[in-house]
Design brief:
- This protein has 161 residues and is α+β, with helices and mostly antiparallel strands.
- The chain folds into two domains: 30 residues; 101 residues, GMP Synthetase, Chain A, domain 3 (2-Layer Sandwich), CATH 3.30.300.190.
- The chain has five helices and five strands; from the N terminus they run αααββααβββ.
- A five-stranded mixed β-sheet has the order 1-2-3-4-5, with helices on one face.
- The radius of gyration is 29 Å and the shape is elongated.
């Protein structure tokens, strides 16, 4: 009892400090809720119900490489977005590139396309042909692919005299 009487101000200070810490944590939790959740929210809910295997992407790459105008195909899954990059020969027209990109969506099951978004980049082997890349995007659940605006091939500055 003498100890409590002697150190009553110290004990009160410790209790007030503990209460201040508890109140501070509660105020922080009120102002910044759900800190443990992902930064982008819960967009990936249900992704475990719609698995997309590497074999599926490799099979699509193999099917695309059967076209003689396709040089290389790479694919990557980013959350709910499937990115496919197709490198084609220099003689492929813009319309042929769009047809090739549109054919990619037919290689997926409807259940996969109802959950995943699809982005197809078609670029040319010859990077100096600047009317490429052609980028096609198909949102999850959509039936058609949207493309970037067509560009004409432009030549660098030429000083004709």
């Amino acid at each position: 009892m003498n100890f409590i009487k002697k150190n009553k101000f110290t004990i009160i200070a410790i209790i007030l400090f503990i209460l201040l810490v508890v109140v501070g944590v509660e105020v922080k939790n009120f102002l910044v809720p759900d800190e443990g959740k992902a930064v982008y929210g819960d967009r990936l809910d249900g992704i475990k119900d719609h698995p997309l295997s590497d074999e599926t992407l490799k099979g699509i790459a193999t099917a695309l490489k059967e076209n003689e105008k396709v040089v290389e195909v790479s694919s990557k899954l980013h959350g709910k977005i499937i990115n496919i990059i197709i490198t084609v020969t220099a003689d492929v027209s813009v319309n042929d590139a769009k047809t090739l990109a549109s054919s990619v969506s037919a290689m997926f099951k409807d259940s996969e396309l109802s959950f995943y978004s699809l982005q197809v980049y078609v670029k040319k082997e010859d990077a100096s042909l600047n009317n490429f890349p052609i980028i096609g995007y198909q949102d999850a659940g959509s039936k058609s692919m949207l493309f970037t605006k067509d560009r004409e091939i432009t030549v660098g500055d030429t000083n004709e005299e």
